[in-house]
Amino acid sequence: MKRTCVIVGAGHRAMAYASHAREHPDRMEVIGVADPVELRRQQAAGMFDLDPANIFSSAEDLAARPKMADFVINGTMDHEHVPTSLPLLRRGYDILLEKPFATNPTEMWDLVETAGETGCKVAICHVLRHAPFYAAIRREVVDGAIGDIININAVEHVSYHHMAVGYVRGKWRRSDQCKSPMLMSKSCHDLDLITWMKSGIAPRRVSSFGSNMQFRPENAPRDSGTRCLVDCPIEGECLYSARKHYLDHPKRWAAYAWSSLEHLESPSIEKMTESLKTSPYGQCVWKTDMNVVDHQSVVIEFEDGATATLNMVGGSAKPLRALHLIGTHGEIQGCLEDDRYVVRHIDPRPGHEFSERTVDLNETGDKTGAHGGHAGGDSRLVGDFLDYLDGNEPSISTTSLEDSVAGHLIGFCAHQSMAENKVVEITMRR
Question: What is the pLDDT of residue 288?
Answer without folding.
Answer: 98
